[in-house]
Amino acid sequence: MSYSTDPVAQTYRTDCTAINLARARTELRSCTPDQLDSAALREAWRRLHETWLTAKAAEIGVAAASGFAIVATGSLGRDELLPCSDLDLLLLHDDMPVETVERVAELLWYPLWDANVRLDHSVRTVAEALEVAAANILADLGLLDARHIVGDERLSVQLRDGVRREWRYGIHSRYDELVETAQSRWQRCGEIVHAVEPDVKSGRGGLRDVQLLAALSLGHLTDGVTAGGPGDQRDALSGAHRTLLDVRTEIHRSSGRGDDLLTARDADAISVALRFGDSGDLVRRLSAAADTVSCRVDAVFEAAGV
């Protein structure tokens, strides 16, 4: 897109109001696959929200050495924010006065709500965030994706380093719980390769399993940075990840909702958007991607004696 028509670029020339964010979100959602392919849409969506957050932070005093930091977790933390994803944000503070924390939080959260952003938010000190991670394995997994957006980067670094250090030290004692959590999810959401309407996010072989492999890699329980093994296996896993992510992006674009199921209703439009051919080709590509991820998870679990 050119600068004059890019709704992300427009945010650089306007103030960080809710109405401008809402307008830019609507414009991006209206872009067709011919205008923005899946990866370009994700990048534009990420830039839009990070640009807005950076401008809003400057307006409300969240800056370097301010004692506040805005940290992305979830899909924004992983650079995988989709058109209908929740925006997962953590406002970190350096044990600031309660009144100050409440004021900053309100100035940050309310415009996002006014822009109809689906917001998953929390406000914590670094110590509080680490305590939550230690008590809840799902919260711990989420914080492994934490990424600094703006503000006092010292706090974000403390959080990131602390979460990853505790994850590496504690992974062996929490391994059974991690496996049980994954197996429960598979039972609940099914296997992508066998499902009539596969869940590309939480089904077996889906994006949650890609995140599981990344977490195991951070815990030094796998071979390779991306838990993909030798180079050719890493390439295959990376390609599978991209396929799953592209399909989920187009599910969001086609349905206009934060759905994760590939339905027969949307399959034809999604296969055209991804240039996969017909819906049968889409299903085959998706199943192959899920099989690649599932086989890698199985190999890691087998090596660990699960």
UniProtKB/TrEMBL annotation:
Keywords: Hydrolase, Magnesium, Multifunctional enzyme, Nucleotidyltransferase, Transferase
Pfam families on file: DUF294, GlnD_UR_UTase
Domain spans labelled PII-uridylyltransferase/Glutamine-synthetase adenylyltransferase: 177-302
Domain of life: Bacteria
Positions in coiled-coil regions: none
GO molecular function: [protein-PII] uridylyltransferase activity; hydrolase activity
Residue span(s) of domain Protein-PII uridylyltransferase N-terminal: 41-102
Protein name: [Protein-PII] uridylyltransferase
